[in-house]
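User: My collaborator sent over this chain with a note saying "see what the structure looks like." That's all I know about it. Can you take a look?
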Amino acid sequence: MWRFTRENKHFSSYVYKARSRVPQRWKSSGKVLAVRREDASVWERRAPIAPHHVKQLTKEGVKVLVQPSNRRAYPMQAYISAGAIIQEDISEAPVIIGVKQVPIDSLLPNKTYCFFSHTIKAQEANMPMLDCILERNIRLIDYEKLVDSKGQRVVAFGKFAGVAGIINILHGLGLRLLALGHHTPFM
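Assistant: Without extra context I'll predict from the sequence alone. Here is the result:
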């Protein structure tokens, strides 16, 4: 049903693309993909796919649902213009994609989720999420484990993921120092 394809040599990530041409009518294709809102961090603005990917998918007959978010790097109107449907309820989609781990109460049973789960190295903080994934019969596709024929990761953290991590660390430090009575620019 789905395969990963490299769009061009300058495109650094992979996108879902249907194997064959299907009619534009969504009801006849039966293919639905959801883009979930990122809520693991207040600073998270990344999106798993851009509006131009949505346009490619809808041309292939895939119905793309996007959860609304006022923090996403791309405005909702760009997704609408590309053919996405903006709605809170993404339960219709068998495949749900995101960037970061999903809060336990947001995990829908019997779905396929694609995101960085941060569980592959047995990160303790995310073990309850992994337990929930198993209990709810969820298929997890962890971007960290997508590799090519040479074992190289095909979806990787970019430069800005590192920058975002530093921002989170400095913000946390600023909050701690504020609690101790010190005022800093790290807020």
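A starting point for your reply to your collaborator: The CA atoms of residues 176 and 182 lie 9 Å apart.
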